[in-house]
Specification:
alpha+beta, GMC_OxRtase_C, GMC_OxRdtase_N, flavoprotein, FAD, seven-stranded mixed β-sheet, globular, six-stranded antiparallel β-sheet
């Protein structure tokens, strides 16, 4: 395996060495006759304990391995959210908590109903068993006593069943410890890069795989449309390395864009692919009018309720948010419609902006919206590729205020859990929003002002049927109207899975590799 561009032409060029890109590069190069270059903006994660140690994840946010995107003004939400996106091999699987849920049957079937033929749960289930990550329940030694008591109290307060192994079968509600992609014996990640690339990087057994690290892709290159009427054909990617040297990395067969829900539409638009009127306003020559690029921006918004505890919390944990709760309020929903992460730390970054003080010892519950109805967009503000795009999540703008009401329900349920033993015995007082905040309007205002992200942007190049004007890719992940180019990352999600989406992105990578002829 090479980490220098010994050549500039490869069979396949993968833009982004993140969650899906790592999978695709590894699978394609199982064929020794296929050459693949991976263009990754960040450095390697090998020998980076700050990255590889799962419990150190919070220290990565806002640091030098974070692209650090912000959001536009959010009149009904929080305008101060830092949308961390990883700048390191492995992408956000090197940055996040590695909570690992196989998407629920209803999640995949929703995609199929939205025009993603062949992506229903029966078709997708086999890809979960192909994953190379070490996906295991939180180890017994990492099961903190207060998290155990949260599980018991949530079960008693809500009546949902205890779940031991959320991936053993579909569920509509439940409480328990998560499955994580990690190695419990040393708290090391089993990220996409660790599982799919490290074995070959360490063994040096993939001479056909080239990793171009600290290399930024800023424009896609295309041949002109053919006389037969076929659309422009992708021929490569223009990149800039850490020394500022610019190169064209060419693909004989295909380019696969795996840069994520922010940088994939960003790269397309700077290459002249996107909403024609928007590109023309910025003076970007339009190669292909594709109005859905950047639209349908999804996320899992969450709020937070914080308690001070009666003293310190035991120190053992996998990553300080090891257990959670799912509730199905609507019996007609296909799965859960309210979720909580339970943090064994006082998570007060946003409440402090409103004047709340962080307790020395505390815990948090973060109700979030599994199936949010608000939709945002990513768009450019400049023709300069180095200017970050604008992210307008349009939080809490859905017509019926379903998203806002979900968080209010979440805070009320969290309070019931906090009053229930054995968790109640740990808690000294509710810090925020505080016991005096009780009305629906007050709770809604608090919940929206301190709302955060679970770092799950998706949907900005969504998959759909041929007659779907805003679909960017077809069910084979090919960009509509273009040749020899696909997208494989969270941007292709038509709708948001009810669960944390990382495993879904890995499965997209596995399926994409198979569609391209790679993988066993």
């Amino acid at each position: 395996m090479s980490e220098k561009p010994e050549q500039s032409v490869y069979d396949y060029v993968v833009v982004g060495g993140g969650t899906a890109g790592s999978v695709i590069a590894s699978r394609l190069t199982e064929d020794p006759g296929v050459s693949v270059a991976v263009i990754e903006g960040g450095p390697s994660d090998i020998d980076r304990d700050d990255v590889l140690t799962l419990r150190r994840w919070l220290g990565l946010l806002g640091g030098d391995l974070d692209y650090g995107y912000t959001t536009t003004e959010q009149p009904r939400g929080n305008s101060h959210i830092l949308h961390s996106r990883a700048k390191v091999l492995g992408g956000c699987s090197s940055h996040n908590t590695l909570i690992s849920f196989k998407p629920l049957p209803g999640d995949w079937d929703e995609w199929a109903a939205a025009g993603a033929e062949g992506w229903d749960h029966k078709a997708m289930d086999p890809y979960f068993t192909k994953l190379r990550n070490n996906i295991v329940p939180v180890d017994e030694k990492d099961r903190n006593a207060i998290a155990r008591d949260f599980v018991d109290a949530a079960r008693a307060a809500t009546g949902v069943p205890r779940v031991e192994g959320f991936n053993k079968g579909p569920f509509k509600d439940g409480v328990g410890f998560f499955d994580l992609a990690y190695h419990p014996e040393n708290n090391k990640r089993s990220s996409a890069s660790v599982a799919y690339l490290h074995p070959h990087m360490e063994a040096g057994d993939r001479p056909n795989l080239t990793l171009l690290l600290e290399t930024w892709a800023y424009k896609l290159e295309f041949d002109a449309p053919s006389a037969s009427g076929e659309g422009p054909t992708a021929r490569g990617v223009r990149v800039r390395d850490k020394d500022g040297v610019e190169t064209l990395i060419s693909a004989r067969h295909e380019v696969v864009v795996c840069a994520g829900a922010v940088d994939t539409p960003r790269l397309l638009m700077h290459s002249g692919i996107g909403p024609k009127a928007d590109l023309e306003k910025l003076g970007i020559p339009v190669l292909h009018d594709l109005p859905g690029v950047g639209e349908n921006l999804l996320d899992h918004p969450e709020s937070v309720i914080v308690w001070e505890t009666n003293g310190p919390i035991p120190d053992n944990s996998a990553m300080d948010s090891d257990a959670g709760l799912f509730i199905q309020r609507d019996p007609d929903a296909s799965g859960p419609d309210l979720m909580f992460h339970f943090y064994q730390i006082p998570f007060t970054d946003n409440p402090e902006r409103l004047g709340y003080e962080k307790p020395e010892h505390g815990v948090s519950m973060t109700p979030n919206i599994p199936k949010p109805r608000s939709r945002g967009r990513v768009y450019l503000t400049s023709a300069d590729p180095e200017v970050k795009p604008a992210l307008d999540f349009r939080y809490f703008t859905d017509e019926d205020d379903y998203d806002g009401r979900t968080l209010v329900d979440g805070i009320r349920i969290a309070r019931e859990i906090a009053k229930t033993e054995p968790l109640a015995g740990w808690l000294k007082r509710e810090v925020c929003p505080g016991p005096d905040v009780t009305g629906d309007e007050e709770l809604s205002e608090y919940a929206r002002k301190v709302a955060h992200t679970v770092y799950h942007p998706a949907g900005t190049c969504r998959m759909g049927a041929a007659d779907d004007r805003l679909a960017v890719v077809d069910p084979e992940l090919k960009i509509r109207g273009l040749q020899s180019i696909r997208i494989a990352d969270a941007s292709v999600f038509p709708t948001m899975p009810a669960v944390n989406p990382m495993i879904g992105v890995l499965m997209v990578g596995e399926k994409c590799a198979e569609l391209m002829g790679g993988g066993a």
